[in-house]
Amino acid sequence: MSLExxxxxxxxxxxxxxxxYAEARYHKxxxxxxxxxxxxxxxxxxxxxxGIGIRVLVDGALGFSATNQLDNENVREAVEKAYRLxxxxxxxxxxxxxxxxxxxxxxxxxxxxxxxxxxxxxxxKINVHRELWDIVSKAPSEAKVPVFFxxxxxxxxxxxxxxSDGAFIVSRIPRLTVFYNLVVMSPQQGSIQRFEQLGASxxxxxxxxxxxxxxxxxxxxxxxxxxxxxxxxxxxxxDVIVGSEVVGLVVHxxxxxxxxxxxxxxxxxxxxxxxFIRPGMLGERIGNENATVxxxxxxxxxxxxxxxxxxxxxxxxxxxYRNGIIYEHLHNRWTAKIYGTHSNAASxxxxxxxxxxxRMANTYxxxxxxxxxxxxxxxxxxxxxxSYMEWNIDDTRWSQRYVGxxxxxxxxxxxxxxxxxxxxxxxxxxxxxxxxxVGKELRFYAGTCGKGExxxxxxxxxxxxxxxxxxxxxxxxxx
Amino acid sequence: MxxxxxxxxxxxxxxxxxxxxxxxxxxxxxxxxxxxxLANSEPSVIQRWKDLVLNIYLVKNKKILVISxxxxxxxxxxxxxxxxIDVADKLYESPFYAPLPEPGEPVKLDLVDKKLLxxxxxxxxxxxxxxxxxxREKIDYVAGMVELSYNEKALATSKDASFYxxxxxxxxxxxxxxxxxxxxxxxxxxxxLNLEKIEEMALIAARYAVDSRNRESIEPGVYDIILSPMVAxxxxxxVGMMASAFMAFMxxxxxxxxxxxxxxxxxxxxxxxxxxxxxLPGSTGFDDEGVATYSKPIIEKGVFKTMLHNSKTAAxxxxxxxxxxxxxxxxxxxxxxxxxxxxxDELIGEVKKGILVTNNWYTRLQNxxxxxxxxxxxxxxxxxxxxxxxxxxxxIRIADTLPRLLSNIDALGRERYDIWWWEVExxxxxxxxxxxxxxxxxxxx
Lengths: 479, 445
What we know:
heterodimer, A: alpha+beta, PmbA/TldD fold, 2 domains, 10 helices, B: PmbA/TldD fold, 6-stranded antiparallel sheet, 21 strands, 38% strand, globular
């Protein structure tokens, strides 16, 4: 039986057993990685996760079962287990689970690598590690780089999604990911650490796009200066230019996550928590007119790219906050039913062994029309926070903290030296209400977003332009 | 499946050697798992897995390849092994290379609970009991999870290791909500099913939810803090992970510039990697290289005692493996904190101005080498003044450094809890811990 037939067989069999809804997803994740420390290749890895995940609705209970043994017998057993477990727990349901009647699609799509992974030899890929180490290790003048850890990952995600409402989606998405961890150290000054993830869908064309050779050389030089020269941030209220990298994280944490309708309805309450957004808060103000945040899975080349979600619904941009108003949530077909709306295709699973749940894709703050110079020009005293390391946010997504890594003092519209570990610690409403100017340059950053039980990490982009916030009291990270 | 798994693991090693690799190891893991996730006091999804994961370690001319596959068939794996020999040829000699070790005699542990095994087919009774127990208190609803698992693993290496182990485990946690702002969370992890313990877990969560209603805000500052076992588990897991020699090599550890014998904490702190404790769900008799595991202190009376090694990191540092492989990175199996002599009331009695923190999440570091971190509290949080709890309070961050946290430990409870959940991935047995003079922070606007 072909894989497509096996998926359809699972759906049909679940319906035969009596499931009111059935869905099967063949899901294959392959990856190849090369790991180095200080330019020396430590090893290579290959990963293959391939199997079928099945979801069924039985008497109002939701069952999920997964197997990687892709023969009729095991798939049949997986369907039966999902059905029986759901049925056994149906007596504990107070409010039966139902899905909305969103229109589902039948489509095949794939992302084509402009430069396939095979267009570079293994030797050349290994050389990237060595050359980057050469640049990084030589960049500082006095300090040392004791560790430069680099992980290069090529991956391909392939899926066949079918459900009893007629969806049939076949997709293939290749991605390139680079992680690095960098420590710059001086015996007198201590250390500074930078961890970064770069990622996009597509192939090796992304490697050129990221221009790692130039940026890392410059970054390490900057980190050394921070180590030697950075001063404590001002203690009084100042204007803060929040760099696009931090803005991206802020919108992910304090707009994207709280807008997940399953969180709002309490499905993640014991894990990542709930949301300050409660049912009925659509239309309420969360920020000023400048605050518009969009989540869009359809951005070409994006890390969180997809055209149909894992429930077979067609993807589109979602305006989560619009001109300061809580405008739209991220929905799957279950939350859409409760809200009396339609799914906006936010349902994604990490791999065959994971249930599809509501996820962000590519979340960004809508750009405005200020140049960077214009953002700075009337700041008398301020801090520009370009990048971060430490951050966290509470479990309702209200109180959040971002600790700057590369940060500058701003005096009379000009950058004046480095500030050490400034802490931006604000509520969600304060952040979106204090944005008084929005940059015009939109930049994206890659991340692996964690959610669910068992935890699922999925690729996302988050981004935005640089923003200016007025009158913020910054803290400083402990030494 | 014992014989099948052992057979398959041996065959994969033989295949690798016949393809021209110098060394090989195959670790096959089969799991049968059921998980019921709860929200609003009812199941939100019932998940079940049955899968087999093949992990293969290959060496050619000191070049290292690691493969993880969940393949359709074994022949597919053999094909991958064959194909990768070309990749291995082109790689460079790994600076971490060391020959696979001679296998030890695995510790024989009784890790299977038949009662638990039966419940994998239908855990609804456990779910019902958890929900019912929590609702004995005046709460509104609970969310949470219970997972039961039967795991089998078989390891073969080209040094003639051929070992098998099977085990059961249960992880359960609940978060209870009461009124506008009351919430409490607790967890349990074990190799064995004990319904009374699960009820106790549910009741702790529910009581904290009820007791933490009507919270008031406090100003951040320097406080004595009592870390509940949930919080201690979350923060000490970082210390346990950082004790991995690989993490130190990678610049991801506060032990990067430390060596065994260095003082790293209060003499009241002893933190053990308890690999062979048959009650704790991380236990195992052999590691991924076939080295016998054993219990060892990571920190003993405040002194850094053992860095965790596999044979590679051990060879690099001229020491012996500690039985903590991971082929690439060593890791702790279970973390156990030695108990103190205090009851919780007595710990509270020791505090003039402080906070009892019962749960936290989202711990992130600004700098691993220096251990600069913050974490945000959640659920029940109580202000302590002059030796007694005065009121429940709103969320606040702990923002300090791990070295200071370890050094300022002043007293430990005598009762220990077995914690295992989303934010405590390494099973941890720990008491409540009193830490003096810790910095806190909260939003300024």
